[in-house]
Design brief:
single chain; alpha+beta; 2 domains; 3-stranded antiparallel beta sheet; 2 helices; 8 strands; 16% helix
Length: 158
């Protein structure tokens, strides 16, 4: 388990490891790895769903927010499948835990559009326009074109 930042269990705002309490909610912070994504009630198990993306928790949170804003119900679960079983090798993300974001099959196309809009700047072969600024998908901090890690939240780009 890697503790790279803390989270407010109430408002889900992210904090550095040195912080102990959320200033807005006045509650004790918890380690990000200890947050279990909430499950929507009466939502099918992943065996009946289609996977949109598997990635580290910061990426998963950004995608989840986009899907929620787009009105697409989804399930987030810790990815336990091996690469041979269709999962992702955790070494791709420095060995940290990875999570799958799952939607109903009929919502997959719409979810993929949101995913593509959210992570298009990470796709190989697509160079951003000169006036387009790169931002971290987790914290939206501006990045240099050659950044391999976000200096604000520590997300490592693979």
């Amino acid at each position: 388990m890697s503790h790279e930042y803390k989270i407010c269990p109430s408002c889900h705002e992210e904090f550095t490891l040195a912080a102990t309490e959320c200033g807005a909610c006045e509650v004790s912070l918890i380690f990000a790895d200890d947050v279990e994504p909430a499950e929507p009630e009466d939502f099918p198990p992943i065996s009946e769903l289609a996977c949109v993306r598997v990635g580290p928790l910061p990426w998963t949170r950004v995608l989840s927010e986009g899907l929620t804003e787009g009105g697409i119900a989804h399930r987030v679960e810790r990815e336990t499948r091996s690469a041979a079983e269709g999962g992702i090798d955790r070494r791709t993300f420095g060995g940290e835990e990875v999570y799958g974001t799952w939607v109903e099959p009929e919502k997959l196309a719409a979810a993929k559009l949101i995913d593509r809009a959210t992570f298009s700047h990470l796709e190989p072969g697509e160079e951003p326009a000169a006036d387009q600024r790169e931002v971290c998908p987790a914290c939206q901090e501006p990045l240099s074109v050659d950044a391999i890690e976000c200096s604000a939240c520590g997300l490592v780009f693979g």
